[in-house]
Amino acid sequence: MPETGEPTDDHPWDYTLSIPNDPRAVTICRRTLRLILTLHGLPHLAEVAELVATELVANAVQHTKGPAAIRLRWTHGVLRIGVWDADPTPPTPAPASTLAESGRGLALVQGCADGWGWYPLGGAQVPGGTGKFIWCELTAAA
């Protein structure tokens, strides 16, 4: 791998990791994400990617009762991190003025990512029939 942190291979790739409803899943996802980025020559994205992925996975584990999954996709110089869960409730970022210890995760994702969004899932896409997919993107230049 080049020492500059440039990707060794610009071919698209993606990984999906199923997540049980277990708080330990957050650490497993974070460590897996760092390993994947390092092996693909993208260690310079690891810190911010870990931060936003931790927030998204923690929300899925903390606020839902069912399974979830994280998906990492690299294409055209953009890393997309997505998390689905079985709760169809739309995500709502807390106001920036909130001083609470929790509830600021989506605001953090908004501040760190180059873009983010969500969409509802239904039918055969999700076990149980409903849910949502929340995603954010980081560019290679980050």
If you had to describe this structure to a student in words, what would you say it looks like?
Keywords: ATP-binding, Kinase, Nucleotide-binding, Serine/threonine-protein kinase, Transferase. Pfam families: HATPase_c_2. This is ATP-binding protein. GO terms for molecular function: ATP binding; protein serine/threonine kinase activity. Residues 19-114 form the Histidine kinase/HSP90-like ATPase domain. The protein has 142 residues and is an alpha+beta fold. Helices cover 30% and strands 29% of the residues. It has three helices and five strands. The chain has helices at 24-39, 46-63, 105-112; strands at 13-19, 68-75, 78-85, 115-122, 130-139. Strands 1-2-3-5-4 form a five-stranded antiparallel β-sheet, with helices on one face. A hairpin with a 7-residue loop joins strand 4 (115-122) and strand 5 (130-139). Helix 1 (24-39) runs antiparallel to helix 2 and helix 2 packs antiparallel against helix 3. The longest helix has 18 residues, at 46-63. It starts with 12 loop residues before the first strand and ends with a strand. The model is unreliable at 1-5 (pLDDT under 50).
Percent of residues in helices: 25-40%
Shape verdict: globular
What is the distance, rounded to the nearest whole angstrom, between the alpha carbons of the first and last residues?
19 Å
The total beta strand count reads: 5
Structural class: alpha+beta
The chain-level mean pLDDT equals 85
Organism: Streptomyces sp. R35
Keywords: ATP-binding, Kinase, Nucleotide-binding, Serine/threonine-protein kinase, Transferase
Pfam families: HATPase_c_2
Domain Histidine kinase/HSP90-like ATPase: 19-114
